[in-house]
Amino acid sequence: MENKFHPETICIQGGWNPQKGEPRVLPIYQSTTFKYETSEQMARLFDLEDNGYFYTRLQNPTCDAVAAKIAALEGGVAGMLTSSGQAANFYAIFNICSAGDHFISSSTIYGGTFNLFGVTMKKLGIEVTFIDPDASEKEISAAFKPNTKALFGETISNPGLTVLDIEKFARIAHNHGVPLIVDNTFATPINCRPFEWGADIVTHSTTKYMDGHATSVGGAIVDSGNFDWNAHASKFPGLTEPDDSYHGLTYTKKFGKLAFITKATAQVMRDLGSSQSPQNAFLLNLGLETLHLRMPRHCENAQKVAEYLQSNPKVAWVNYCGLENNKYYTLAKKYMPNGSCGVISFGLKGGRDIAIRFMDNLKLASIVTHVADARTSVLHPASHTHRQLSDEQLIEAGVAPDLIRFSVGIENADDIIADIKQALDKAI
Ligand SMILES: *Cc1c(COP(=O)(O)O)cnc(C)c1O
């Protein structure tokens, strides 16, 4: 019902529809459990015969309202919250892959996701092949195997800032009878709605722009409801064949377009339990209420900062897809005509040591392991997140030793630029 409103209205009003005498603001249902009149009523919930709350690990009214808001923003049929972005990506894959299965992922993705896919999921018997997202359809198609179950990429990758050709990826996935899963964290549904370009499942680290104020780690999964699991039934037995842990219920038969999210909630969340706390969901909801106002300002400020850096002779290089000479400018304009995100990366002449001197002299921008915050934040991956790697290993990992990741906040752009200028003057 909410999908008919514009994103701005959904940001404010989506998810929570109070009835007569109920709180106007989404309440925090800080309760692990929910009361019933008869044993039979509760039993029906456990059998998925009725819809309702019984234990917050599975579902909670605060979390569900926020999940519904995010689903509406993405134009999907249903969503679920998770305790982190890591859990969202893990659950999205694990909901359709088990030991012996394979999936394909863009190689330019968030470092945590890269480890999850390449190291931890491998220990569970799920193999990944990483591909260059800019490779041709033919090259990417060559990575598919009979046991491949999904294709994965990030709309704008963190920290590489590559832009995904979503239509190309959707075409490749669908030609092979598998869904395209897109991590839409950096663009947010304000700037890009991957379902409109053929993606089937969207994931988020809500920790970033959605929360936006650096208060709560969280994640979300949204299903478009568009992927036809039954058309490829033998690939997805978990959805199309009876689930022994629910007396032989079949998700696609009983839940139709809601099959994927129902299984993710009723089975994967039930058993693995990375649920978001109602308190964090409440804070996330406050963030979402201004997402449509904050994203344009992040993009506007980032554009000004990127242009300033590009014109400064002390700067060796700048990577931001809003710059016309950027490799991804055209793709960014196609998928995100109103702006991409507020994250920029750049290098200074003089390299690594100068980068550190520059950062230590920043006053307004703070050194934190975080991006996509209302406050301007800065990180030097070679000294922080990737500090165990040698310069050669850093280059192999796609992280230049001099790379500074600069997450432009929503302060006044002139103040941010003045801070950069004074720090550059001290550093070089
Ligand atoms: C941060 C991030 C994640 C992981 O999210 P957490 O909330 O930190 O677990 C996943 N994907 C992208 C693109 C991210 O930026």
TrEMBL record:
The modification N6-(pyridoxal phosphate)lysine is found at residue 208. GO terms for molecular function: cysteine synthase activity; lyase activity; O-acetylhomoserine aminocarboxypropyltransferase activity; pyridoxal phosphate binding. Coiled coil: none annotated. SUPFAM superfamilies: PLP-dependent transferases (SSF53383). GO terms for biological process: cysteine biosynthetic process from serine; L-homocysteine biosynthetic process; transsulfuration. It comes from the Bacteria. One of its GO terms (cellular component) is cytoplasm. Keywords: Lyase, Pyridoxal phosphate, Transferase. This is O-acetylhomoserine (Thiol)-lyase. It comes from Coprobacter secundus subsp. similis. The lineage of its organism: Bacteria, Pseudomonadati, Bacteroidota, Bacteroidia, Bacteroidales.
